[in-house]
Structures are given as C-alpha cells and as structure tokens.
Amino acid sequence: MSNEFRFIPVGEPRAQQPWPSIIVPRSAIEAEIERLASSALPSSGVRASAISHPSNTHEVPCFAPGIDVTLHVVKPGESTPPMARSASAVDMCIGGSGVGSIGSHSLSVERFDVWNTPSMESVSYTNKGRELFVRLSYSNAPLLEKLEVHLVDTKPRAVAANAAQEASAPAAPRARDSAEAIDLGTEGARLLGYEYLVDIDVVESRPLLWPWVEVEKHLGKVYSRDLSYTGRHLYLLYNPATERRMGTSHCFFATIAKYPPNKIDQPHRHTSAAINYYFFGHGKSSVMGERMQWEAGDLHFSAPGWAVHNHGSREEGFCALTIQDHPLQIAMDSLVWQETLKSPIVKLGSQRGFDTNIGELVRAA
Fold this sequence. Notes:
Strands 1, 15, 16, 18, 19, 20 and 21 form a 7-stranded antiparallel beta sheet that branches. This protein has a 6-stranded antiparallel beta sheet with strand order 2-3-10-5-8-14. The protein is an alpha+beta fold. The protein has helices at about 25-40, 140-145, 165-170, 195-200, 210-225, 325-330, 360-365, and strands at about 20-25, 45-50, 70-75, 85, 90-95, 95-100, 105-110, 115, 125, 135-140, 150-155, 180-185, 190, 210, 235, 255-260, 270, 275-285, 290-295, 300-305, 310-325, 335-340, 345.
C-alpha cells in the first residue's frame, strides 16, 4: 500500500445509493438453524451465521449498512465460550430457552424475550433445556469494523464479585474537580481541561431483559387502538442508560408492534435503517415503490435509510420486532425524519418532532 497522500477535488454531492429492501424467508432461516445444529461444533465453540445483504461488498457481513444480524444456535447441554467485544447488541430468542451470562448478570431467556448486551462485557450462553436455543443478534460490529476499532477479546477477565459494591461506594475526589472550566461568551461555549476528556460522568450501561410474558400483557392496548390512530401500534423497549436517545442499546432501539387487522401506515421516511422480524401474522409493505408480502418467521430489511416506505397488516394483524439505529443517529445529530410525505422534514432530537392523535383517542375512550 502506498504511503503517499492525495488531494482529491471535491465536486457535486454524491447521490446516495440505498440498498434494496430484502426479505429472508422463514424457510431459509429454519434450514440454516437445522444446518447449524447438525454440523460439528466449530473450533470457535459458536454455532452462528451472519446474514449478509447482497449489496454488501465489504468482507464483513451485514444485513443493513452498519448493522449485522446473526443467527445463533446452542444445542442442549452446550455453552459458548466467554467473549467480550466493543460492539453492543440487542438479541431476541426465537426458539427454545437459555441462560445468558453477561458480565456479572445472569439472564434466563425464552421465546420472544429481548435483551441488550453492553460492549466489553464478558458474554456466554448456556442451553439447559431440551430444545435448540436459537436467537437473533443485532449489533453495530460492521460499523466498528469499518472504523477498524472492533475489538474482540476471546479470553475476557472475570468480573470481580465485589464490582457492585465498588460501584456504589462513596465517590472519591476527581481530578476534574481541579481542572479548568472557562466560559466563552454567553451562548454556552466553554474551554475544559484534559481531565474532562478522560473522566466522563458515568451512566451505567448494563444488560436489561424485556420478557415476552410481561411485554405481551400490554400489547393488547396498542392492538385495540382505533385504526384512525396516526402513530404506530407499538412499544419501545426503553433502556434508561440511553437517556434522550430513546434506545434499547446505545446504538439501536427495539420496538415490539402488535397491529390490528387491516391497518396501513402512512408512507414515511427516516435516515435510520430498519429491520423487522415478524413473529405473528402476515402483511405487506411498500418500500421505494416495490410491493412486498411477508409472514411470521420472515426477516425483513424493511427501511433503507431515507427510503419512502410503509407497512400494512392483513386479516390477522401481526407482531414484529423492529431494530433501528435511531439512538446512533440522534447522537450524531443526523436523525432526519418525515412522518408523512406532506409533513415537514425534521431533525429529531434537536428540532420539535411530530404529534399524533393519541390525545383525541384517549379523550374519546
């Protein structure tokens, strides 16, 4: 590789080339689960396959630009070796049950449970049941790979037993307490000493579990909402560590939707990519003018960034897990959103967002 730099003329803005929407059918996912389960255990100790979009030309697999979706299978009696990495993840169990050891936490999970995995935590999974433990895992590893900073530790250190006590111990004096903090003008610009860079205020990032048995109890409310509702029939799986970024992890939000029969969303668009896993019912979508049909068990790259799209239920309604890189986009101040094609284009997080008619429906109930 040449070590000579280049000056490259800057021309007109490049036209963006969104990847096409694509559906991975249930039959293909089930066949891959069977293949993984029937194959010899790899030397890595992990039975897994990443699902790569046909438009992906990078050697690192991803299903949407910057987002990978990996299918994991753990057979009864098996455990995966501990691993820690700088990527964070959101997972859904789609078959069987298992136990996740994430740092000092132990999560018992079963079908349709969702949980998050913070970065750099030692992670392993064990199947203590009689059925295959199958999960879909969504991570930001492709983005970190592109930045050449995806750190993977296959021999992570065990978490100290007294870590919780250390976290709750009285705060020690901080060097930043003596560092300079200088106001410049009256608009908020400041000069801060180096200590502010290396001793950032801590917001604990820990694994959280959203059990399906609990989530399902509340879905009837969005399912029964009137078809005139202008929002989406869903709940956000909110992690308070993400604060105003409204995430399930620091990179992604996960929502669980339960749509009533024959509800069709308004066409809309946003710069965050969206991936849907449908686990009940069937329906239809229009993405960049292409009409698509899907059913329970399908995985759908349902919204390429800034592509016009909408989804609709059929006679059964549907349930879906949706993953979007919404919190990452807010952190980058780049979450541009248009709620309907007649609505203004808004940068969510730093401009006023959109209203729905939820107040009218509540008052009328």
